[in-house]
């Protein structure tokens, strides 16, 4: 397959030199759902040297309409997403060194992986891990491409530690709703559009054409035909605890991490997140998937066989299970 990369090399900004660089680089993708599989396929086809994928989930039927690497067979076998992805990716390009971890990424287990990584791609589905990654890539000085999508909308921003504002600064300036794919759904083109933005930026970083990077936040709504880019250069805050002059990396501290515990004898899991929630917004969103009751202090939702109670300070009780794994999945599906 001598001419495997010929068309990519023919593209002047990549060239033979760029292709060689791509083949020497190591990319880490956090998450192997819709964004993760599409990003992974693109990188493997482009000939990245090494790819590491971290994901904690397994393949389910409701993934198939948008998570492009997976097949019905993966579903029947309930394969972990990272394992199924590796199988398909190796068939696409056997020259790529693919390493996968079936685990819930956190500070402790991601730090050693990050040591020889040239680029991190965000393909996660919740902001707890994104804020943690935001701190981690700044502490380790690794470029990171944020991406998120829900419904027919999406956004992406390229974070270069020491140069651009961080995710925290961006989101302080442009608040996003907490809507999730499990509450308002998603169409596959929204995924593809985010991935197109993430991957073009990724190739620029891998061939080291940093001047070509997009400095703006891009947001779009494919259904309503909206496309915006927003200049974020002024959003960088000198006092930001992540990208400011005296960083403290708050999301790498134990106290700020979301904690979960089984409440003994109550068939309930308690989740303590440090993020305050907007009960009105949550009520609106969650009433589409179950019966919601709300008072000024909390909101409760009947969801399948579970009852979920969400307090204003971010604390959540999941009644009807003593599985941390299950409760965590429900939590991220609903709260995002
Ligand atoms: Zn910042």
What is the number of E strands? 14
Q: Which consecutive residue ranges, at least 5 long each, have pLDDT under 50?
A: none
What is the overall pLDDT average? 91
Helix segment count?
A: 12
CATH superfamily of the largest domain: NAD(P)-binding Rossmann-like Domain
SSE sequence, one letter per element: HHEHEHHEHEHEEHHHEEEEHEEEEH
Tell me the CATH architecture of the largest domain: 3-Layer(aba) Sandwich
Let me know the largest β-sheet: 8 strands, mixed
| Structural domain tally | 2
Measured distance between first and last alpha carbons: 43 Å
CATH topology of the largest domain: Rossmann fold
Question: What is the CATH C level class of the largest domain, in words?
Answer: Alpha Beta
Q: Over the alpha carbons, how many angstroms does the gyration radius reach?
A: 20 Å
Which percent bin holds the helix content? Answer: 25-40%
Judged by helices, strands and strand pairing, the structural class is alpha/beta
Spatial strand order of the main sheet: 3-2-1-4-5-6-7-8
Bound molecules: zinc ion
Global outline: globular
Instruction: Tell me what portion of residues adopts beta-strand conformation.
Output: 15-25%
Would you kindly provide a written description of the structure presented here, covering whatever features stand out?
By secondary structure, the chain is α/β, with parallel strands linked by helices. The chain is 34% helix and 23% strand. The protein contains twelve helices and 14 strands. The strands form two sheets. Strands 3-2-1-4-5-6-7-8 form an eight-stranded mixed β-sheet, with helices on both faces. A hairpin with a 3-residue loop joins strand 11 and strand 12. Helix 3 packs parallel to helix 5. The mean pLDDT is 91. The site of zinc ion has 8 residues, from helix 8.
